[in-house]
Amino acid sequence: HVQLVESGGGSVQAGGSLTLSCVTSGYSYRTYCMGWFRQAAGKDREGVAIVYTGGGAPVYADSVKGRFTISQHSANNSLYLQMNSLEPEDTAMYYCAQRPCVSGAQPPEHMRRPPSDYDWGQGTQVTVS
After folding, report:
1. Which one of 13, 46, 86, 109 is CB 3.0 to 4.6 Å from 128, fit for a cystine?
2. What is the model's pLDDT at position 115?
3. Cβ-count burial of 80 within 10 angstroms (0-12 exposed, 13-18 middle, 19+ buried)?
4. Do residues 126 and 7 make contact, with C-beta atoms less than 8 angstroms apart?
5. What is the C-alpha to C-alpha distance for residues 55 and 64, in angstroms, rounded to an integer?
6. How far is 96 from 110, CA to CA, in rounded Å?
7. How many CB atoms lie within 10 A of CB 69?
């Protein structure tokens, strides 16, 4: 049974920081794409940052480059998103997502066009004022 559980959202003033955490369980593949996506009110879900557990640099949305950092720890099946210099435009529901992947070329493709077959967490709200 696949499960993803996020935590760490909240309300913060512009310029502040938050760290999102996600613990995953129930997977048995060798390598994965793990990422954070967000959906603001009235907008489509968009990719924020995705990492391939088989190696290589993470990919980020242009809007968060230099401000957000994704990290993944295989030992405890965890994914994190450190968010600095938050802006009101970052206000959204943030979702942790994971799916089996076999290539480091997949995260950039998923950023452009998120596949429908990711497993999703329940989401955690981030509000920046």
Report:
1. 86
2. 86
3. middle
4. no
5. 21
6. 14
7. 15
* Mean pLDDT of the chain, nearest integer: 94
Burial of 114 (0-12, 13-18, 19+ CB in 10 A): middle
pLDDT tens for each residue of 69-83: 999 988 778 999 999
List the structure tokens of 68. Answer: 């957000």
In angstroms, the Cα distances linking 2 to 25, 27, 75, 77, 99 are 6, 6, 17, 12, 10
Maximum pairwise Cα distance, the chain: 41
Q: How far apart are alpha carbons 67 and 76 in whole angstroms?
A: 25
